[in-house]
Amino acid sequence: MDDLLELLPGYNCGKCGYQQCRDLAENIRTADDIGRCPFMGKQQFAKNRKKLKELLKTTVKRLDIVGVIDGLEADFTLAPLDGEPTCREDIHPIDGTEFKAGDFVRYRPLGCPITHFAKVIASGRGMTTIHMVGPQQRLGNEDIEFIDGGICLIFAFDGKIEQGRIPKVGETVKFIPTLCMMQKVHSGIVVGIEDRNIRIEAIDLKVW
Q: In this structure, are 82 and 148 located in the same domain?
């Protein structure tokens, strides 16, 4: 890491999509990634660029993040935001069932064979934000009464990148929620990112 960082400009300008040069160094995997820095293409950094390419051939190995159920490769794993039990999810019941904050709901995401259990954080205008409480976490809480939400569309995830690369806003990404029982690769579009906190919308379980 120190060798990579020493060869980067060190301007911490954010033009590569990362806040600091160190973040870029952490996510460099191939020679093509060097091009994310607009300054590395300038003549004054030509020697550094050559050294970086040589270094990448011998020292940097890609972190493989692979889904268990589908064997697909993901860009990163998605963990809960600091201080929260699970990633936040925005869901919408296809049958129009309405929830309110504090409700416990039972539903099945469209495209997923597993019934999920969740606690509602907020709800309004057809969108419900939840924290997962099962099926794994539900053990020992069978006395809780759950509202049946039927099949739900999953619109968004809010979480924190745990392992893997940091993407750009607008990029389509593949990710694995850390508490996903099936460890299945999800896909979606990055609509907001700050440090490692990220919001992903247009969620799809069918990864192309």
A: yes
Q: Residue 26, SS3? A: helix
User: What is the domain extent for residue 79?
Assistant: 73-204
Cβ contacts of residue 62 below 8 Å, gap of 6+? 29
Q: For residues 185 and 61, give the distance between their C-alpha atoms in angstroms, rounded to a whole number.
A: 21
State residue 5's pLDDT score: 86
pTM listed for this prediction:
0.70
Question: What does the pLDDT average to over 21-30?
Answer: 80
80 and 40 part of one domain: no
Element (DSSP H or E) covering residue 96: none
In a domain, 68, yes or no: no
Average pLDDT estimate for 170-187: 91
The answer to the question of residue 30 being in a domain is yes
DSSP 157-197: EEEEEEEE----TT-EEEEEETT-TT---EEEEEEEEETTE
Alpha carbon 202 to its chain centroid, in Å, reads 13
Q: Are the beta carbons of 123 and 130 closer than 8 angstroms?
A: no
Cα–Cα distance for residue pair 156/170, rounded to 1 Å: 14
d(CA 93, CA 172): 25
**Residue 151 pLDDT exceeds 70:** yes
Q: What is the reported pLDDT for 163?
A: 85
